[in-house]
Specification:
Blueprint: E1 2-5, E2 8-14, H1 15-21, E3 30-32, H2 40-48, H3 51-60, H4 68-78, E4 91-95, E5 98-102, H5 112-116, H6 119-129, E6 135-141, H7 145-154, E7 160-167, H8 173-180, E8 187-192, H9 196-207, H10 210-218, E9 221-225, H11 231-250, E10 260-265, H12 270-281, E11 285-292, H13 297-304, E12 306-308, H14 329-336, H15 339-352, E13 354-356, H16 358-368, E14 369-373, H17 376-390, H18 396-410, E15 417-421, H19 429-435, H20 444-455, E16 476-477, H21 482-491
Parallel strand pairs: 5-15, 6-7, 6-9, 7-8, 8-16, 10-11, 10-15, 11-14
Antiparallel strand pairs: 1-2, 1-3, 4-5, 12-13
Helix pairs in contact: 1-6, 2-11, 3-4, 3-11, 11-12, 17-18, 17-19, 19-20
Bound molecules: pyridoxal-5'-phosphate (PLP).
The site of pyridoxal-5'-phosphate has 17 residues, from helix 12.
């Protein structure tokens, strides 16, 4: 199967090249030329399989260059005892029509692990297939969770190095500690002055800087991305939509073939787009509900067809969704229109910060998506109420989705739904404690211990003992100096 750029259909490459490059040379994102179909009876077979077998079956549809045995090997390593539960991504049921898909049982306690434990395996195998001799430097802009998950995935992986930039004032205390204490010889972490969009823009600038690429080339290094613009990030995420559907069938909540909604806390539009691919492959999904926090650029877009980033930026309690430029939307736009239109809209986004996709594309999007947003206060109220009523504790991002779904249901939109839960509540312990009326001044490990004491739940192991680890990275850079920081690290 070929992959081509959202900005030029003639720019087509193999799966391994798409994964190795991350971003197409024209600035577009790689998309598969066709969407493989999965039948209901095949989904019935997946119901009998475990998570790893489901992953091999779904990912294999898009990766014909890789043998089933190769894929089995990747999956065996990516989803193993680095996860703290055997189901890998379990679905918990709150009641007969509401499930929670927990995607945070991996080593960094956020859903990014689902893809970033897999990506290094796909990437190094792709480089081998391509006969690539150069080292790859993975460049990451993170709103918090991607950075740690990518560091954990790539630490000490042969033939790779990784540089992560996070917004100085835009990540939680636990997230920051997780990154600045990262182990590994091939890793580097730096704060950036500004918000996530500043960090992401800086990284994109480095990617499009030919002179910079030439200088790296002299050192035998090339750049690639572990952000969700990389197809190798998106692909492993399609699996868990199938898996959750199977869990609903196995749990007696759905009959095979019944439709299901997914409500997804959304930032860069990667997670929910994977759900859209699952739907287009044939998974019985009715609607994908795109949930935002106060940075509700996507809510407005899905309602009006106008994407407008010219608005106030809010720092919220769900920082991984504090994003005004959702990169993966470009893939959806391409699937609903064509390369020339996408190129035009992306150019408008760059110059005026705004584009309008028109009525036809909007109606296609609306056929698959609903949208809504939640304020911090609404999310906190939901965390408190759900815990009080049921003992189920959720994080702030999941709570945005929960709040959006609850509002839709109160307005009469009632359908069996799975809420995609993207982080352990312990990762955002400060805000979760606040939501439970137990906010205080604690930091680091004290926060984690307090949340354990207040809720009688147990913190995931990777989040305990953070304070005791050596902080290795203390630097902060301006957006303009990011390229120099990368070069200095590579030069070492
Ligand atoms: C990254 C992240 C999101 C947003 O996912 P996108 O794929 O960027 O839409 C939501 N919640 C958490 C906890 C995340 O880490």
């Amino acid at each position: 199967m070929k992959y081509f750029s959202t900005r030029d259909k003639n720019n087509a490459v193999s799966a391994s090249a798409a994964i190795a490059q991350g971003l197409a040379s024209d600035g577009g994102l790689f998309v598969p030329e066709t969407i493989p179909a999965v039948t209901l009876s095949e989904i019935g077979e997946l119901c009998k399989a475990d998570y790893r077998e489901r992953a091999v079956a779904i990912m294999g549809r898009y990766l014909d260059e890789f043998t089933q045995d190769e894929l089995r090997g990747f999956v065996r390593e990516a989803y193993a005892d680095n996860y703290d539960c055997a189901e890998i991504a379990p679905t918990r049921f709150l009641d007969d029509s509401s499930g929670v898909l927990e995607l945070w049982h991996g080593p960094t306690c956020a859903f990014k692990d689902m893809a970033l434990q897999m990506l290094p395996r796909l990437l190094t195998a792709s480089l081998k297939k391509l006969g690539e001799k150069r080292r790859v430097c993975i460049l990451v802009a993170t709103s918090g969770d991607t950075g740690k998950a990518a560091l954990e995935g790539f630490a000490d992986v042969e033939g790779t190095s990784i540089v992560v930039f996070y917004p100085r004032d835009g990540v939680s205390d636990v997230q920051k500690l997780q990154m600045t204490t990262q182990r590994g010889k091939n890793v580097f972490v730096s704060a950036v002055e500004g918000n996530f969009d500043d960090a992401q823009t800086g990284v994109k600038q480095i990617f499009s800087d030919r002179g910079f690429a030439d200088k790296l080339e002299e050192k035998g290094v090339f750049l690639s991305s572990a952000n969700s613009i990389n197809w190798g990030r998106l692909l492993p995420q399609i699996v868990y939509y199938f898996s959750a559907y199977c869990d609903c069938v196995n749990g007696g909540k759905l009959s095979l073939g019944d439709k299901l909604d997914f409500c997804v806390p959304t930032g860069n539009f990667g997670d929910i787009l994977a759900g859209w691919y699952a739907k287009k492959m044939g998974l019985p999904v009715r609607k994908l509900i795109c949930a935002s926090n106060s940075n509700n650029v996507l809510t407005d877009f899905i309602n009006t067809g106008v994407y407008d980033r010219n608005r106030e930026f809010f720092t919220t309690i769900s920082p991984s969704m504090d994003i005004l430029i959702s990169s993966n939307l470009e893939r959806l736009l391409f699937m609903c229109s064509d390369d020339a239109s996408v190129k035009g809209w992306m150019a408008e986004l760059k110059t005026s910060g705004r584009y309008d996709v028109g009525a036809k594309v909007l109606s296609e999007i609306k056929a698959d998506f609903l949208s809504g947003c939640a304020t911090d206060d609404e999310a906190k109220a939901c965390i408190g109420k759900l815990f009080k009523d049921t003992g189920y504790l959720m994080d702030t991002h999941t709570a945005d989705a929960y709040a959006v779904l609850a509002r839709m249901r109160s307005e009469g939109e009632s359908f069996p739904s799975v809420i995609v839960s993207t982080a352990s509540p312990y990762k955002f312990a400060d805000s979760v404690l606040d939501a439970l009326g137990e906010g205080g001044k604690e930091l680091g490990s004290a926060l984690i211990e307090k949340l354990e004491a207040v809720t009688g739940t147990k913190a995931p192991k990777p989040l305990t003992g953070l304070d005791g680890r050596e902080v290795r990275f203390t630097g902060c850079t301006s957006k303009e100096e990011m390229a120099d920081v990368v070069m200095e690290f590579i030069g070492k």
